[in-house]
Write a structure and sequence with these properties.
The chain has about 350 residues and is of the alpha/beta class. The chain contains 3 helices and 39 strands.
Length: about 350
């Protein structure tokens, strides 16, 4: 059944101020250029305010500096956050396979909670434990002894190896692999000997992991992704890494083994971090940065090797001038050489 809300109901839902007809019916949410009279849209950044006049949207989520806009409004200090919450109201429910497909393979001594959804092609090993309302999409494989908490969703073709722990309300997108062996090999002088990876992976509650990520099991002990972490697509997390609560990791990041990330860390796209370092609480690391050392809490670093962001900006400003400085240096060297030649000529032998 389609969701229909009044403008006042939506304002109350996000803690905003309704400015316009409180009984205006809203049936959907759309981009500002595509929205129709029954849609609500949002303006989170000033450069999009110019589209309000031409938009056909029935109502707008805006910040207080746009409160004089002559259109139906929800006014809130954080329009983007309000948009995210309202989008959840209008998002269609996830389609779930009704019950347990007879084309799934269920191992021995498994514990399946109420209202689980297990689609065709799912394979569960022995002693797997699923909480209530767990959803496993087609092609999911869960290894022996793994437990998955209530309301967690594993999208198509996710693989979770043996003896891993996944918490409640976790979302894991297609193609991701949890609990594969960490990259551990010991040289004997002629070849490399595999080090058995005897640990596990623990993913705490309310984590979301994008598509085609890899999170390796600990060599000994655990790799742990703590509560509320959000991970983009194509991220690689090595053995025994700890990612702190509510951290955000953008696409194509690589984190080497035994690194520890604090709370609320943000890693931009393609960041690379060496092993056995600590990234403090609240650290921000800019895209494509290479991090060869620990970073204290609260710093913003950028570049390769990573440095404080202000230093990086100064370096970039200087780099733009390097060709000119190089030519000036060559000219000065010629002048110095000419002066030295003149001095040598006039100096008696």
């Amino acid at each position: 059944m389609a969701t229909i809300k009044t403008l006042q109901e939506l304002a109350d839902f996000v803690g905003g101020v309704c400015q316009g007809p409180p009984d205006l019916l809203i049936k959907g949410l759309a981009a500002i250029e595509e929205a129709g009279p029954e849609d609500i849209t949002f303006v989170a950044w000033p450069q999009f305010a110019k589209f309000i006049e031409s938009s056909r949207a029935g109502a707008f989520i805006v910040s207080p500096d746009l409160k004089d806009t002559p259109r139906p409004l929800i006014i809130t200090p954080n329009p983007y956050l309000a948009y995210a919450r309202i989008a959840g109201l209008f998002a269609p429910p996830l389609p779930r396979w009704p019950g347990i497909s007879n084309q799934a393979v269920i191992g021995q001594q498994c514990s399946l909670g109420a209202e689980v959804s297990i689609a065709p092609g799912v394979v569960l090993g022995d002693r797997v434990r699923l909480g209530e309302r767990v959803t496993l999409m087609p092609g999911v494989v869960v290894g022996h002894g793994t437990s998955i908490g209530a309301d967690t969703v594993l999208h198509a073709n996710v693989t979770v190896y043996h003896d891993c722990v996944i918490g409640e309300r976790v979302i894991i997108h297609s193609g991701t692999v949890i609990g594969a062996d960490g990259f551990g090999f010991a040289p004997d002088g002629a070849k490399f000997i595999k080090i058995p990876q005897l640990g596990t992976v623990v993913i705490e509650d309310d984590v979301e992991i994008g598509a085609n990520c890899t999170i390796d099991r600990g060599a000994l002990g655990e790799t742990r992704i703590k509560q509320g972490v959000k991970i983009d697509n194509l991220v690689m997390i090595a053995h025994n890494v700890i990612v702190g609560e509510d951290s955000v990791i953008v696409a194509q990041v690589g984190i080497s083994g035994s690194t520890r990330l604090g709370r609320n860390v943000m890693l931009g796209g393609q960041v690379g971090i060496v092993g056995h370092v600590e990234i403090g609480d609240g650290v921000r690391i800019g895209a494509q940065s290479g991090v060869p050392h620990s970073v204290p809490a609260g710093l913003t670093v950028t570049g390769s090797p990573a440095m404080p962001h202000k230093d990086f900006l100064r370096l970039q400003a200087v780099k733009k001038r390097l060709p000119d400085l190089y030519e000036r240096l060559k000219a000065l060297e010629k002048q110095v050489a000419a002066l030295q030649a003149a001095v040598d000529k006039e100096t008696p032998g």
